[in-house]
Specification:
Blueprint: H1 31-42, H2 52-64, H3 71-79, H4 93-116, E1 127-130, E2 133-136, H5 139-150, H6 153-162, H7 168-174, H8 176-188, H9 192-218, H10 256-259
Antiparallel strand pairs: 1-2
């Protein structure tokens, strides 16, 4: 199982100056970089940022879908998974570019693993201690995956209709309705731990089937990651003709400025 960070880590994201050689898009994140990215997201002051497990599920969904989706379309949801409106407070443009670079390298690593090592790929689940030992927490990952599906629901619907069983566990842990059903089922089961363990084990095979289903239509996911937009610094209201901070690529006056 892929390692996951301890959330009690420093929020400061190290800049490229900390590396002997500047990493490229193909450079996998180190464990320290994963920890720092997770800490940055959770301690960024945003109302609804993704954590690293939700981000992993979200990117798996983005890269497994029926259509290639540019980073400008999905990156705003990382900072604000509820409305894609908030952006982080960055100290400077260099820091903003570095954080975006970490996200893109994380996405690139997932894309390469899905493309070339799908049989060994495992979702990123954190662990928590329980009265009976430890267990993997999968609800954030499932929510993140379904958030990616929600960005292009009409395109996903044919697969959901054809193979609803592939989404059963993801819907069970990633939606409010699913959690209600899960709680009702657990009350009737003599061994809830075994039920949860079976759910954890079901997600990776389902992801492999979903990824493989759309691959002939979508093409290679590893080519779907052009240069990332730099997250906007949210320290001043943009002018009407400036690019919208949400990352949509449109002018502020016709995007979030219009609503304002």
């Amino acid at each position: 199982m892929r390692a996951v960070c301890d959330h009690a880590c420093l929020p400061n994201v190290p800049t490229d100056d900390h590396h002997a050689m500047k990493p490229t898009l193909d450079t996998p994140l180190t464990s320290e970089e994963v920890d720092h990215l997770d800490a940055f997201l959770l301690q960024s002051g945003l109302d609804a940022p993704m954590d690293i497990s939700m981000l992993d599920g979200f990117l798996c969904g983005v890269l497994s879908g029926p259509r290639q989706m540019p980073p400008a379309r999905w990156m705003p949801w990382i900072w604000d998974f509820e409305a894609a409106e908030q952006v982080p407070q960055f100290a400077n443009d260099k820091n903003a570019k570095h954080v975006a670079g970490l996200v893109m390298r994380f996405a690139r690593e997932i894309a390469l693993n899905l493309e070339h090592a799908i049989d060994e790929f495992e979702p990123l689940f954190p662990e928590r201690e329980t009265a009976s030992g430890s267990e993997f927490v999968i609800d954030d990952w499932c929510f993140g995956f379904l958030k990616a599906v929600s960005l292009d629901p009409a395109a996903w619907q044919p697969l959901i209709d054809e193979h609803p069983e592939w989404f059963e566990t993801i819907n069970l842990y990633g939606t409010d309705a699913g959690w209600k059903k899960l709680e009702e089922e657990i009350e009737k089961l003599p061994d809830a731990d075994a039920r949860h363990a079976a759910s954890v084990a079901a997600i990776a095979p389902a992801l492999r089937r979903i990824y493989g289903y759309w691959q002939p239509v979508r093409g290679s996911a590893e080519v779907a990651l052009p240069g990332a937009p730099t997250p906007a610094r949210n320290d001043a209201k943009p002018t009407r003709n400036a690019p919208c901070p949400c990352g949509s690529g449109r002018k502020y006056k016709v995007c979030h400025g219009a609503a304002a």
